[in-house]
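Quick entry between incubations.
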Amino acid sequence: MTEPNIFTQYLKKRNTLVKNKKILQSSYTPENLPHRDDKINEIVEIIAPSLSKDKPSNILIIGKTGTGKTAVMNYIGKELKKADPEEENCTFIYINCEIVDTPYGILYNIANQIISDPSRRIPFTGWSLDKILSELTNYIDEKNKIFIIVLDEIDRSFQKNGDDIFYYLTSINQELQNSRVSIIGITNNTKFTDLLSTRIKSRLGEEKIIFPPYSVEQLQDILYERAKDAFDDGILEEAVIPYCAALTAQEGGDARRALDLLRMSADIAERNGDSNITEAHVKSAKNKVELDAMGEIVKTLTLHSKIVLLSIIKNTEEGQSTMITGDVYSRYKYFCEAIGTPPITQRRVGDLITELDMLGIVHARVKSFGRAGRTKEIELSTPVQIVELLKSDEMFKDIEKYKPPKQTTLM
DNA sequence: TGTCCACTGGAAGGGAGGGCTT
DNA sequence: AAGCCCTCCCTTCCAGTGGACA
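Done. Structure below.
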Protein backbone atom coordinates (compact mmCIF):
# COMPACT_ATOMS: atom_id res chain seq x y z
CA MET A 1 0.00 0.00 0.00
CA THR A 2 1.37 3.38 -0.97
CA GLU A 3 0.83 6.52 1.07
CA PRO A 4 -2.02 8.63 -0.28
CA ASN A 5 -0.84 11.69 -2.14
CA ILE A 6 -2.14 14.30 -4.58
CA PHE A 7 -2.60 11.72 -7.32
CA THR A 8 -4.49 9.21 -5.25
CA GLN A 9 -7.91 10.60 -5.99
CA TYR A 10 -7.24 10.48 -9.73
CA LEU A 11 -6.08 6.91 -9.56
CA LYS A 12 -9.25 5.95 -7.76
CA LYS A 13 -11.80 8.12 -9.45
CA ARG A 14 -10.80 7.57 -13.02
CA ASN A 15 -13.00 4.93 -14.54
CA THR A 16 -11.11 2.96 -17.10
CA LEU A 17 -12.99 2.01 -20.20
CA VAL A 18 -9.88 0.65 -21.86
CA LYS A 19 -8.54 -2.61 -20.52
CA ASN A 20 -5.20 -2.29 -22.21
CA LYS A 21 -4.15 1.03 -23.64
CA LYS A 22 -1.08 -0.32 -25.34
CA ILE A 23 -3.18 -2.28 -27.80
CA LEU A 24 -4.64 0.89 -29.22
CA GLN A 25 -1.29 2.53 -29.85
CA SER A 26 -0.31 2.46 -33.49
CA SER A 27 3.18 1.41 -32.46
CA TYR A 28 1.83 -1.81 -30.97
CA THR A 29 2.45 -4.86 -33.10
CA PRO A 30 -0.54 -7.17 -32.85
CA GLU A 31 -0.35 -10.95 -33.11
CA ASN A 32 -2.69 -10.86 -36.03
CA LEU A 33 -2.57 -8.40 -38.90
CA PRO A 34 -5.87 -8.56 -40.76
CA HIS A 35 -5.77 -8.31 -44.57
CA ARG A 36 -2.02 -8.45 -44.82
CA ASP A 37 -1.42 -12.19 -44.91
CA ASP A 38 -0.60 -12.12 -48.59
CA LYS A 39 1.99 -9.37 -48.13
CA ILE A 40 3.51 -11.13 -45.15
CA ASN A 41 3.83 -14.33 -47.12
CA GLU A 42 5.37 -12.53 -50.04
CA ILE A 43 8.02 -10.96 -47.85
CA VAL A 44 8.65 -14.08 -45.80
CA GLU A 45 9.22 -16.05 -48.96
CA ILE A 46 11.87 -13.57 -50.00
CA ILE A 47 13.71 -13.33 -46.72
CA ALA A 48 13.35 -16.92 -45.51
CA PRO A 49 16.68 -18.00 -47.06
CA SER A 50 18.43 -15.80 -44.52
CA LEU A 51 17.73 -18.48 -41.92
CA SER A 52 20.10 -20.75 -43.77
CA LYS A 53 22.62 -17.99 -44.33
CA ASP A 54 21.68 -17.26 -47.91
CA LYS A 55 21.35 -13.65 -48.87
CA PRO A 56 17.77 -12.62 -49.66
CA SER A 57 17.04 -10.05 -52.35
CA ASN A 58 16.75 -6.41 -51.42
CA ILE A 59 13.13 -5.30 -51.17
CA LEU A 60 11.40 -2.01 -51.70
CA ILE A 61 8.05 -1.69 -49.99
CA ILE A 62 5.77 1.03 -51.25
CA GLY A 63 2.49 2.16 -49.74
CA LYS A 64 0.81 5.14 -48.16
CA THR A 65 1.02 5.92 -44.44
CA GLY A 66 -0.98 3.61 -42.24
CA THR A 67 -1.21 0.75 -44.70
CA GLY A 68 0.57 -1.59 -42.36
CA LYS A 69 4.06 -1.52 -43.84
CA THR A 70 5.83 -0.89 -40.58
CA ALA A 71 3.58 -3.18 -38.58
CA VAL A 72 4.16 -6.00 -41.05
CA MET A 73 7.92 -5.54 -40.93
CA ASN A 74 7.96 -5.43 -37.16
CA TYR A 75 5.86 -8.55 -37.05
CA ILE A 76 8.17 -10.32 -39.45
CA GLY A 77 11.15 -9.15 -37.41
CA LYS A 78 9.66 -10.68 -34.28
CA GLU A 79 8.87 -13.95 -36.02
CA LEU A 80 12.33 -14.09 -37.52
CA LYS A 81 13.78 -13.73 -34.05
CA LYS A 82 11.59 -16.59 -32.85
CA ALA A 83 12.86 -18.77 -35.68
CA ASP A 84 16.47 -17.93 -34.84
CA PRO A 85 16.53 -16.90 -31.18
CA GLU A 86 20.29 -16.83 -30.83
CA GLU A 87 20.65 -14.82 -34.03
CA GLU A 88 23.09 -17.38 -35.30
CA ASN A 89 22.18 -17.00 -38.91
CA CYS A 90 20.56 -13.65 -39.27
CA THR A 91 20.01 -10.36 -37.49
CA PHE A 92 17.14 -8.05 -38.13
CA ILE A 93 17.71 -4.31 -37.79
CA TYR A 94 15.09 -1.62 -37.99
CA ILE A 95 15.88 2.06 -38.57
CA ASN A 96 13.35 4.83 -38.94
CA CYS A 97 14.85 7.39 -41.28
CA GLU A 98 12.34 9.98 -40.24
CA ILE A 99 13.92 10.07 -36.81
CA VAL A 100 17.50 9.59 -37.90
CA ASP A 101 17.78 11.22 -41.26
CA THR A 102 21.46 11.96 -41.74
CA PRO A 103 23.92 9.51 -43.30
CA TYR A 104 25.95 9.64 -40.11
CA GLY A 105 22.90 9.03 -37.98
CA ILE A 106 21.79 6.05 -40.03
CA LEU A 107 25.19 4.38 -39.97
CA TYR A 108 25.57 5.17 -36.28
CA ASN A 109 22.23 3.56 -35.51
CA ILE A 110 22.86 0.47 -37.56
CA ALA A 111 26.29 0.08 -36.03
CA ASN A 112 25.13 0.35 -32.48
CA GLN A 113 22.32 -2.13 -32.96
CA ILE A 114 24.83 -4.61 -34.31
CA ILE A 115 27.90 -3.95 -32.21
CA SER A 116 27.61 -5.55 -28.80
CA ASP A 117 31.20 -5.07 -27.73
CA PRO A 118 31.18 -1.78 -25.76
CA SER A 119 34.81 -1.05 -26.52
CA ARG A 120 34.03 -0.93 -30.22
CA ARG A 121 30.99 1.33 -30.03
CA ILE A 122 30.85 4.22 -32.44
CA PRO A 123 30.60 7.76 -31.00
CA PHE A 124 27.52 9.70 -31.98
CA THR A 125 29.57 12.33 -33.73
CA GLY A 126 33.14 13.02 -34.68
CA TRP A 127 34.04 10.22 -37.03
CA SER A 128 34.18 10.48 -40.79
CA LEU A 129 31.60 8.50 -42.74
CA ASP A 130 34.37 6.45 -44.33
CA LYS A 131 35.63 5.44 -40.96
CA ILE A 132 32.25 4.33 -39.61
CA LEU A 133 31.59 2.47 -42.80
CA SER A 134 34.81 0.52 -42.71
CA GLU A 135 34.43 -0.25 -39.00
CA LEU A 136 30.87 -1.38 -39.63
CA THR A 137 31.89 -3.47 -42.61
CA ASN A 138 34.60 -5.20 -40.60
CA TYR A 139 32.28 -5.94 -37.73
CA ILE A 140 29.57 -7.28 -39.99
CA ASP A 141 32.01 -9.52 -41.76
CA GLU A 142 33.37 -10.96 -38.53
CA LYS A 143 29.91 -12.13 -37.55
CA ASN A 144 29.54 -14.39 -40.53
CA LYS A 145 25.78 -14.19 -40.97
CA ILE A 146 22.99 -12.38 -42.78
CA PHE A 147 21.97 -8.87 -41.74
CA ILE A 148 18.57 -7.63 -42.77
CA ILE A 149 18.43 -3.88 -42.47
CA VAL A 150 15.01 -2.26 -42.67
CA LEU A 151 15.07 1.43 -43.54
CA ASP A 152 11.64 2.86 -42.80
CA GLU A 153 10.57 6.18 -44.35
CA ILE A 154 13.54 5.84 -46.62
CA ASP A 155 12.46 8.84 -48.70
CA ARG A 156 13.00 11.15 -45.73
CA SER A 157 16.68 10.56 -45.72
CA PHE A 158 16.78 10.63 -49.48
CA GLN A 159 15.24 14.10 -49.67
CA LYS A 160 17.99 15.50 -47.52
CA ASN A 161 20.99 13.54 -48.59
CA GLY A 162 20.47 12.09 -52.02
CA ASP A 163 21.15 8.42 -52.43
CA ASP A 164 24.79 8.10 -51.45
CA ILE A 165 23.94 6.38 -48.22
CA PHE A 166 21.89 3.75 -50.05
CA TYR A 167 24.71 3.29 -52.44
CA TYR A 168 27.05 2.55 -49.54
CA LEU A 169 24.63 0.17 -47.95
CA THR A 170 23.75 -1.71 -51.09
CA SER A 171 27.35 -1.99 -52.16
CA ILE A 172 28.63 -3.13 -48.80
CA ASN A 173 28.33 -6.75 -49.92
CA GLN A 174 31.18 -6.35 -52.34
CA GLU A 175 33.49 -5.75 -49.40
CA LEU A 176 32.26 -8.70 -47.39
CA GLN A 177 33.82 -12.16 -47.39
CA ASN A 178 31.64 -13.97 -44.87
CA SER A 179 28.50 -12.03 -44.07
CA ARG A 180 25.82 -10.58 -46.32
CA VAL A 181 23.54 -7.57 -45.99
CA SER A 182 20.03 -7.20 -47.39
CA ILE A 183 18.25 -3.90 -47.45
CA ILE A 184 14.51 -3.52 -47.09
CA GLY A 185 13.42 0.01 -47.90
CA ILE A 186 10.00 1.27 -46.89
CA THR A 187 8.54 4.38 -48.46
CA ASN A 188 5.16 6.03 -48.69
CA ASN A 189 6.14 7.95 -51.76
CA THR A 190 4.91 6.08 -54.81
CA LYS A 191 7.23 8.03 -57.06
CA PHE A 192 10.23 7.27 -54.91
CA THR A 193 11.87 4.98 -57.44
CA ASP A 194 11.82 7.72 -60.06
CA LEU A 195 13.99 9.84 -57.81
CA LEU A 196 16.68 7.23 -57.38
CA SER A 197 19.63 7.17 -59.69
CA THR A 198 19.85 4.10 -61.91
CA ARG A 199 22.78 2.62 -60.00
CA ILE A 200 20.60 2.39 -56.86
CA LYS A 201 17.28 1.68 -58.52
CA SER A 202 18.24 -1.76 -59.72
CA ARG A 203 19.91 -2.69 -56.46
CA LEU A 204 17.33 -1.45 -54.03
CA GLY A 205 14.33 -2.55 -56.02
CA GLU A 206 15.26 -6.15 -56.69
CA GLU A 207 11.82 -6.97 -55.35
CA LYS A 208 8.98 -4.51 -55.11
CA ILE A 209 5.95 -4.93 -52.92
CA ILE A 210 3.02 -2.55 -52.98
CA PHE A 211 0.75 -2.05 -49.97
CA PRO A 212 -2.64 -0.70 -51.09
CA PRO A 213 -4.67 1.53 -48.75
CA TYR A 214 -7.26 -0.19 -46.58
CA SER A 215 -10.90 -0.08 -47.57
CA VAL A 216 -13.66 0.85 -45.10
CA GLU A 217 -14.43 -2.81 -44.44
CA GLN A 218 -10.80 -3.65 -43.86
CA LEU A 219 -10.38 -0.73 -41.50
CA GLN A 220 -13.39 -1.97 -39.58
CA ASP A 221 -11.88 -5.42 -39.26
CA ILE A 222 -8.65 -3.94 -37.98
CA LEU A 223 -10.45 -1.84 -35.41
CA TYR A 224 -12.65 -4.74 -34.28
CA GLU A 225 -9.59 -6.91 -33.93
CA ARG A 226 -7.91 -4.42 -31.61
CA ALA A 227 -11.08 -3.40 -29.81
CA LYS A 228 -11.76 -7.01 -28.91
CA ASP A 229 -8.72 -7.04 -26.62
CA ALA A 230 -8.81 -3.41 -25.57
CA PHE A 231 -12.42 -3.05 -24.43
CA ASP A 232 -14.89 -5.10 -22.45
CA ASP A 233 -18.16 -5.97 -24.16
CA GLY A 234 -20.72 -3.22 -24.34
CA ILE A 235 -18.30 -0.34 -23.81
CA LEU A 236 -18.25 0.60 -27.46
CA GLU A 237 -21.52 1.64 -29.00
CA GLU A 238 -22.23 -0.29 -32.14
CA ALA A 239 -21.81 2.67 -34.48
CA VAL A 240 -18.42 3.75 -33.16
CA ILE A 241 -16.13 1.52 -35.15
CA PRO A 242 -17.95 1.88 -38.47
CA TYR A 243 -17.88 5.61 -37.94
CA CYS A 244 -14.16 5.73 -37.19
CA ALA A 245 -13.51 3.56 -40.22
CA ALA A 246 -15.65 5.70 -42.48
CA LEU A 247 -14.01 8.92 -41.36
CA THR A 248 -10.51 7.61 -41.95
CA ALA A 249 -11.30 5.82 -45.19
CA GLN A 250 -12.35 9.16 -46.62
CA GLU A 251 -8.89 10.45 -45.91
CA GLY A 252 -7.02 7.66 -47.61
CA GLY A 253 -7.40 4.55 -45.48
CA ASP A 254 -4.74 5.23 -42.89
CA ALA A 255 -5.10 2.61 -40.17
CA ARG A 256 -2.87 4.55 -37.83
CA ARG A 257 -5.25 7.48 -37.87
CA ALA A 258 -8.22 5.20 -37.38
CA LEU A 259 -6.58 3.80 -34.27
CA ASP A 260 -5.61 7.22 -32.99
CA LEU A 261 -9.20 8.24 -33.42
CA LEU A 262 -10.53 5.28 -31.50
CA ARG A 263 -8.02 5.74 -28.71
CA MET A 264 -8.72 9.42 -28.42
CA SER A 265 -12.46 8.76 -28.35
CA ALA A 266 -11.97 6.40 -25.44
CA ASP A 267 -9.78 8.98 -23.71
CA ILE A 268 -12.40 11.65 -24.02
CA ALA A 269 -15.14 9.36 -22.78
CA GLU A 270 -13.01 8.38 -19.79
CA ARG A 271 -12.23 11.94 -18.92
CA ASN A 272 -15.89 12.86 -19.09
CA GLY A 273 -16.63 10.00 -16.77
CA ASP A 274 -18.97 8.42 -19.32
CA SER A 275 -19.67 4.73 -19.11
CA ASN A 276 -19.43 3.97 -22.81
CA ILE A 277 -18.07 5.38 -26.01
CA THR A 278 -20.37 6.97 -28.54
CA GLU A 279 -20.28 8.59 -31.95
CA ALA A 280 -20.20 11.99 -30.27
CA HIS A 281 -16.91 11.10 -28.62
CA VAL A 282 -15.50 10.16 -31.99
CA LYS A 283 -16.54 13.50 -33.37
CA SER A 284 -14.76 15.52 -30.74
CA ALA A 285 -11.81 13.15 -30.93
CA LYS A 286 -11.47 13.89 -34.61
CA ASN A 287 -11.02 17.58 -33.95
CA LYS A 288 -8.62 16.92 -31.15
CA VAL A 289 -6.47 14.50 -33.12
CA GLU A 290 -6.01 17.01 -35.90
CA LEU A 291 -5.29 19.85 -33.54
CA ASP A 292 -2.83 17.88 -31.46
CA ALA A 293 -0.89 16.79 -34.50
CA MET A 294 -0.72 20.31 -35.84
CA GLY A 295 0.11 21.76 -32.44
CA GLU A 296 3.06 19.45 -32.06
CA ILE A 297 4.41 20.52 -35.41
CA VAL A 298 3.97 24.21 -34.73
CA LYS A 299 5.71 23.92 -31.39
CA THR A 300 8.81 22.45 -32.93
CA LEU A 301 9.19 25.03 -35.69
CA THR A 302 12.32 27.16 -35.62
CA LEU A 303 12.03 30.82 -34.71
CA HIS A 304 12.12 32.06 -38.28
CA SER A 305 9.56 29.51 -39.44
CA LYS A 306 7.29 30.70 -36.65
CA ILE A 307 7.69 34.31 -37.71
CA VAL A 308 6.97 33.37 -41.31
CA LEU A 309 3.86 31.49 -40.24
CA LEU A 310 2.77 34.38 -38.08
CA SER A 311 3.19 36.71 -41.05
CA ILE A 312 0.94 34.52 -43.15
CA ILE A 313 -1.61 34.40 -40.36
CA LYS A 314 -1.55 38.14 -39.90
CA ASN A 315 -2.03 38.76 -43.59
CA THR A 316 -4.92 36.31 -43.61
CA GLU A 317 -6.53 38.02 -40.64
CA GLU A 318 -6.38 41.30 -42.47
CA GLY A 319 -8.43 39.89 -45.28
CA GLN A 320 -5.75 38.60 -47.63
CA SER A 321 -6.92 35.04 -48.07
CA THR A 322 -4.15 34.40 -50.58
CA MET A 323 -0.80 36.14 -50.81
CA ILE A 324 2.53 35.87 -52.61
CA THR A 325 6.05 35.38 -51.32
CA GLY A 326 6.78 39.10 -51.48
CA ASP A 327 3.77 39.90 -49.25
CA VAL A 328 4.89 37.39 -46.68
CA TYR A 329 8.44 38.61 -46.77
CA SER A 330 7.65 42.26 -46.16
CA ARG A 331 5.42 41.36 -43.23
CA TYR A 332 8.08 39.00 -42.01
CA LYS A 333 10.73 41.72 -42.02
CA TYR A 334 8.41 43.95 -40.05
CA PHE A 335 7.90 41.28 -37.40
CA CYS A 336 11.63 40.64 -37.18
CA GLU A 337 12.12 44.28 -36.43
CA ALA A 338 9.35 44.15 -33.85
CA ILE A 339 10.97 41.38 -31.88
CA GLY A 340 14.47 42.62 -32.55
CA THR A 341 15.86 39.73 -34.50
CA PRO A 342 17.80 40.12 -37.76
CA PRO A 343 15.78 38.85 -40.73
CA ILE A 344 17.00 36.09 -43.01
CA THR A 345 17.02 36.43 -46.80
CA GLN A 346 14.00 36.11 -49.02
CA ARG A 347 15.60 33.10 -50.68
CA ARG A 348 15.61 31.28 -47.37
CA VAL A 349 12.11 32.43 -46.44
CA GLY A 350 10.96 30.94 -49.73
CA ASP A 351 12.34 27.60 -48.56
CA LEU A 352 10.65 27.96 -45.18
CA ILE A 353 7.33 28.55 -46.91
CA THR A 354 7.87 25.39 -48.92
CA GLU A 355 8.58 23.53 -45.69
CA LEU A 356 5.40 24.86 -44.09
CA ASP A 357 3.56 23.64 -47.15
CA MET A 358 5.02 20.18 -46.81
CA LEU A 359 3.96 20.09 -43.17
CA GLY A 360 0.42 20.88 -44.28
CA ILE A 361 0.21 24.13 -42.34
CA VAL A 362 -0.11 26.32 -45.43
CA HIS A 363 -0.91 25.71 -49.07
CA ALA A 364 1.73 27.10 -51.39
CA ARG A 365 1.79 26.53 -55.12
CA VAL A 366 3.92 28.18 -57.75
CA LYS A 367 1.77 30.22 -60.06
CA SER A 368 2.44 32.66 -62.85
CA PHE A 369 0.66 35.98 -62.77
CA GLY A 370 1.79 36.91 -66.26
CA ARG A 371 3.32 40.34 -66.29
CA ALA A 372 3.01 40.41 -62.53
CA GLY A 373 5.62 37.70 -62.31
CA ARG A 374 5.84 34.12 -61.26
CA THR A 375 5.85 33.29 -57.56
CA LYS A 376 4.20 31.19 -54.91
CA GLU A 377 0.57 31.74 -54.08
CA ILE A 378 0.17 31.08 -50.39
CA GLU A 379 -2.89 30.32 -48.34
CA LEU A 380 -3.27 29.37 -44.68
CA SER A 381 -4.67 25.87 -44.18
CA THR A 382 -4.56 25.65 -40.42
CA PRO A 383 -7.40 25.72 -37.91
CA VAL A 384 -7.78 28.91 -35.91
CA GLN A 385 -6.80 27.32 -32.61
CA ILE A 386 -3.26 26.84 -33.87
CA VAL A 387 -3.10 30.49 -34.57
CA GLU A 388 -3.87 31.14 -30.92
CA LEU A 389 -1.19 28.72 -29.87
CA LEU A 390 1.38 30.58 -31.90
CA LYS A 391 0.28 33.95 -30.69
CA SER A 392 0.59 32.87 -27.10
CA ASP A 393 4.27 32.25 -27.70
CA GLU A 394 6.26 34.38 -25.26
CA MET A 395 8.32 35.78 -28.13
CA PHE A 396 5.33 37.23 -29.89
CA LYS A 397 3.36 38.63 -26.99
CA ASP A 398 4.17 42.28 -27.67
CA ILE A 399 4.00 42.04 -31.40
CA GLU A 400 0.50 43.49 -31.68
CA LYS A 401 1.59 46.67 -29.97
CA TYR A 402 4.62 47.25 -32.13
CA LYS A 403 4.72 50.31 -34.35
CA PRO A 404 7.69 50.71 -36.69
CA PRO A 405 9.92 53.75 -36.14
CA LYS A 406 9.32 56.69 -38.48
CA GLN A 407 10.98 56.17 -41.85
CA THR A 408 14.00 58.43 -42.13
CA THR A 409 14.46 59.33 -45.76
CA LEU A 410 18.03 58.27 -46.26
CA MET A 411 19.15 56.85 -49.56
C1' DT B 1 5.73 37.33 -81.07
C1' DG B 2 8.52 39.09 -77.83
C1' DT B 3 8.92 41.30 -73.35
C1' DC B 4 9.14 41.35 -68.70
C1' DC B 5 7.86 40.62 -63.91
C1' DA B 6 8.78 38.44 -59.34
C1' DC B 7 10.30 35.20 -58.11
C1' DT B 8 11.90 29.93 -58.11
C1' DG B 9 15.14 26.65 -57.20
C1' DG B 10 19.89 24.80 -57.98
C1' DA B 11 24.71 25.25 -56.65
C1' DA B 12 28.38 26.50 -53.90
C1' DG B 13 30.02 27.78 -49.87
C1' DG B 14 30.51 29.77 -45.02
C1' DG B 15 30.53 29.39 -40.26
C1' DA B 16 28.93 27.83 -35.79
C1' DG B 17 28.37 23.87 -32.97
C1' DG B 18 28.63 19.13 -32.01
C1' DG B 19 32.72 15.94 -31.24
C1' DC B 20 36.88 12.75 -32.41
C1' DT B 21 42.06 12.05 -33.12
C1' DT B 22 46.77 12.79 -32.50
C1' DA C 1 45.94 22.49 -29.02
C1' DA C 2 45.49 21.83 -33.78
C1' DG C 3 43.37 19.53 -37.31
C1' DC C 4 39.74 16.95 -38.78
C1' DC C 5 34.68 15.51 -39.76
C1' DC C 6 29.47 16.01 -40.04
C1' DT C 7 25.17 18.65 -39.61
C1' DC C 8 22.35 22.63 -39.61
C1' DC C 9 21.05 26.99 -40.98
C1' DC C 10 21.96 30.42 -43.71
C1' DT C 11 23.87 33.62 -47.72
C1' DT C 12 25.17 34.78 -52.36
C1' DC C 13 24.79 34.24 -57.10
C1' DC C 14 22.29 33.32 -61.02
C1' DA C 15 20.00 30.95 -64.90
C1' DG C 16 15.38 29.81 -65.75
C1' DT C 17 10.33 30.45 -66.24
C1' DG C 18 4.80 30.77 -67.08
C1' DG C 19 1.85 33.56 -68.89
C1' DA C 20 -0.51 38.38 -69.26
C1' DC C 21 0.19 42.12 -71.89
C1' DA C 22 1.83 45.32 -75.69
